[in-house]
Amino acid sequence: MPRKMKIAEDNYRHKGMRQQLVNQLRSAGFSDERVLSAINEVPRHVFLDSSFVEFAYTDQPFAIGAGQTISQPSTVAFQTTLLNVERGMKVLEIGTGSGYQACVLAALGAKVFSIERQRNLYFRTKEILEQLPYRVKTFLGDGYEGLDTYKPFDRVIITAGAPFIPPKLIDQMKPNGIMVIPMDNANGDGQIMLRITKNADGSLSREEFGDFKFVPMLTGTASD
Ligand code: SAH
Questions:
Q1: Ligand 1 touching residue 160 (CB < 6 A)
Q2: In the chain, fewer beta carbons within 10 Å around the N or the C end?
Q3: Which residue has the least CA distance to atom 23 on ligand 1?
Q4: Does the beta carbon of 115 sit less than 6 angstroms from any atom of ligand 1?
Q5: Which tens digits make up the pLDDT trace of 47-58?
């Protein structure tokens, strides 16, 4: 059996840096205290390579291998705030990546189901998540398909740039459910953050929340 990679400890220095990051987010205008306290709780450095601990608590995206990135803390705060998660809700995440966003949602009391298409990333992250106390179930698969077995979801969060609103994910949402999705803009140079509400009669409402840059939401699974 190969030896398991052990996650880094969470010491006073890390906790101090995390508190500073939260203060920085608060000064930047983030005001949902539940979201801020979830960010204050989840050790972001354990999701990065140990040589990058210094960067874990700056407001930057970071490479996590397989050409993918861990979203920057302010983007995690932004999407999490829009999602408006309540304790006990079932949340579907597309793009597990490092697993950090999933843990922030779990710290809010959500039951998180997260899909990743990159095989290596899926296994690496699964190993990290097993050593953390958060309720996150991970799946290797294509996010466009969602998780038919575990539907319906109260919330859906997409953490990759999507070319369109995936219809199956809308189908798998409860009435009054909310989806937060960065959708490709018409210029092809980034995404616009959308919040889609599935009304009780099945119709969709759409709100727009500014420009972002995500890695693309691709189809199928991959091994590279
Ligand atoms: N939520 C992540 C950010 C991940 S970046 C975090 O907190 O770290 C986006 C991720 O989406 C990448 O890992 C990418 O491989 C994945 N992805 C892209 N298209 C996908 C798809 N169709 N299904 C599932 N995952 C996908």
A1: yes
A2: N
A3: 143
A4: yes
A5: 988 777 878 999
